[in-house]
Amino acid sequence: MNKINEYISSQFKNPRGIAGKIISLIQNIVNKQMYKNTVMIVNVNSDDKLLDIGYGNGHLLKMLYKKCSPDMYGIDISDDARLMAEKRNTKANDAGKLHLQVGDCCVLPYEDNNFSAITTINTVYFWSDTVKGLSEIKRCLKEGCSFYNVVFTKEYLDTIKYTEIGYKKFEPEELVQYGRDAGFENIQIKEIVKGKSFVVIYTK
Ligand SMILES: C[S@@+](CC[C@H](N)C(=O)[O-])C[C@H]1O[C@@H](n2cnc3c(N)ncnc32)[C@H](O)[C@@H]1O
């Protein structure tokens, strides 16, 4: 049983092959409200550059493009995620507004003061170094712009067996403190789905 949970957890951390595809699709369905509420609060316009960290199969990017067609960048450690996300975002790709990379968010390959918004859903559990990741994000954000870090509550994750392996779980206050350690002064927390998920908004 432990091996199965370890395998499922590893697929959430780094989706691969057909299992990664299925797990990504299940997330899109199960977390429908989480994506919808995130899209509503992200402040971005058509002439803005947006970065999504750990874009998975590109579901959030597709919804953001439908909302306002920003110039969209993405970074994810999974090669297969890039293929899935490109396939799902052909409209943005054809318009020259999709720029996906494979890489680690703790070493962002972007210039300083580059993005008007940075988003991520359900990835912070897997970063090797939370403060380093947040510092990199701060470096790449434009002045006055925000990073939206959407996460499940620790209580909710504790009800899911496979999250016992490979997941770092956070209380909201811990993510606020890590943000301060990374140099953010303006940090807000908002509920995303009642009792289940929240967003930490770090503004530069
Ligand atoms: C649970 S999935 C969430 C996918 C997507 N954000 C969504 O909500 O549909 C986590 C994603 O984060 C990616 N990931 C994990 N660690 C990462 C890192 N250090 N840098 C960038 N991406 C990472 C994984 O490859 C995977 O696609």
What attributes characterize this protein structure?
9 helices; 7-stranded mixed beta sheet; 25% strand; alpha/beta; single chain; 204 residues; binds S-adenosylmethionine; Rossmann fold
Structure report:
This protein is an alpha/beta fold and 204 residues long. The protein has a single domain, classed as Vaccinia Virus protein VP39 (Rossmann fold), CATH 3.40.50. The protein is built from nine helices and seven strands. It has helices spanning 2-13, 17-30, 32-41, 59-68, 79-88, 90-94, 130-140, 154-157, 172-181, and strands at 49-53, 71-76, 98-102, 115-121, 141-152, 186-193, 197-203. Strands 3-2-1-4-5-7-6 form a seven-stranded mixed sheet, with helices on both faces. A hairpin with a 3-residue loop joins strand 6 and strand 7. The longest helix is centred in the N-terminal third of the chain and has 14 residues, at 17-30. The N and C termini lie far apart (44 Å). The mean pLDDT is 96.
What is the CATH class designation?
Alpha Beta
In whole angstroms, the N-to-C terminal distance is: 44 Å
- Helix fraction bin: 40-55%
Q: How would you state the average pLDDT, rounded?
A: 96
Name the CATH homologous superfamily.
Vaccinia Virus protein VP39
Instruction: Report the β-strand fraction as a percent range.
Output: 15-25%
What spatial form do the alpha-carbon principal axes imply?
Answer: globular
Helical stretch tally: 9
Largest sheet: 7 strands, mixed
Assembly context of the chains: single chain
What Rg do the Cα atoms give?
A: 16 Å
